[in-house]
Amino acid sequence: MSLTLAIKKFASLNAKPGGIEPKKPFYLPGLNGIRAIAILIIVAAHTDEFTYLFHRHAIGIIGKGAAVHAVTLFFVLSGYLITYLLMLEKEKFKKIHYRKFYMRRALRIWPVYFLMISIAYIIHIHGGITPEYKVITAYFLYYLFFIPNIFFAARGILHPITPLWSIGVEEQFYAFWPFVINKAKNILGVMLAIIAIYFCTKIVLQYAHFTTLFKIVNVTRIDSMAIGGIGAYLVLERHRLLSIIYHRITQVICWALLIYSLIFGAIHIFSIADSELYSILFLVFILNVSTNPRTIISTENKVLNFLGKISYGLFAYHMSILFLLAYLLRGITFNINDTIFVIGLYLLTLIVAIPVAYFSYEFFEKRFLNLKQKMLR
To answer: Does the CA dihedral 190-146-315-139 come out positive or negative?
Structure first.
């Protein structure tokens, strides 16, 4: 798809300035399927990690880095889609409407995010989990002001909302990315420069032994989202690199590496560059399933589309459901081995989480999504 064709497709959806959410929502195939795969991996890893709540032993899923890679996949996907839409808006209207961009993001992300923070705060304050009111309030301020990645990097834990650190990272990315796309005359060059500066900063902090700063920068995944942004640029400009990315051999190699890493553990070449290497790997998947008609694996089907549509809810609620199951099943002994137990717990978590996420989407999140559509017409 060339940029001209993309603009024509965009215009055909009756878009208005600042309104990337037109009457008929803009859609790239396969992306919901990517979201579904990522969230299923995250739930599996967290189920394994928290088997200790049931007095059982983990089977090693979390140790293989599956959850970390799945979160990286979400970051790359976010950077890809946001950059794609921003570039279309800039090309068509010669500018990006910042206020409407932030309204769209807030209406999509904030309702579930603040709902979960509120519930977790009440549980911690009134559930006897944390002994000191002032301490726990200070912890929650990191989440309230969208900097939970700093708390997370310092090994801070606030169950069941600890995974929401990644939402803070995305919000930080959204805070400046529209300005980058709007002002940059050489978008590709600027994105490459941002990745290079970020990566060099990590190297300096690591070898200078600024451990805390390194951890904070390392989880603030600007590199992964910028790599996703480069993917959007390549597609919209129909860059010659796509012929390599779309090649069947490239696809086979990338899928083989992913399957290997899920089974045997993360592939390390340079530990400090793991996130960048996996981001490039995931970008190949995203570009092929969303824009290559000859993709060897399609993620466009009803089941994955459904799970992808409710993936935000699955991500936000699954930890709470795990803790609730641990409370409800306390005192019950299961005479099965740990592997069977983890698989069963994983399936049970999904059986509960999927309806909860569906009802959240239909009766809570959609209210804000519909409001977003009305406000942007």
So the answer is: positive
Q: Where are the domains of the chain?
A: 3-375
Provide the sign of the torsion angle of the four alpha carbons 211, 213, 215, 217, taken in this order: negative
Residue 373: how many other CB atoms lie within 10 Å: 16
Integer Cα distance of 170 and 164 in angstroms: 10
**Coil/strand/helix, residue 16:** strand
* pLDDT tens, the chain, 377 aa long: 444 444 444 444 444 444 444 445 566 889 999 999 999 999 999 999 999 989 888 888 776 677 788 899 999 999 999 999 999 999 988 889 999 999 999 999 999 999 999 998 888 877 655 556 667 888 899 999 999 999 998 888 888 899 999 999 999 999 999 999 999 999 999 999 999 999 999 999 999 989 889 999 999 999 999 999 999 999 999 999 999 999 999 999 988 988 888 777 777 777 788 889 999 999 999 999 999 999 999 999 999 999 999 999 999 999 999 999 998 998 888 888 999 999 999 999 999 999 999 999 999 999 998 887 765 55
Q: What 8-state DSSP symbol labels residue 184?
A: -
Phi, psi of 19 (to 5 degrees): -115, 75
Instruction: For residue 204, give every residue at least 6 positions away whose Cβ sits within 8 Å of its Cβ, in sequence order, or none.
Output: none
Q: Which of 114, 126, 228 is nearest to 177 (CA)?
A: 228
Tokens of 7: 């603009």
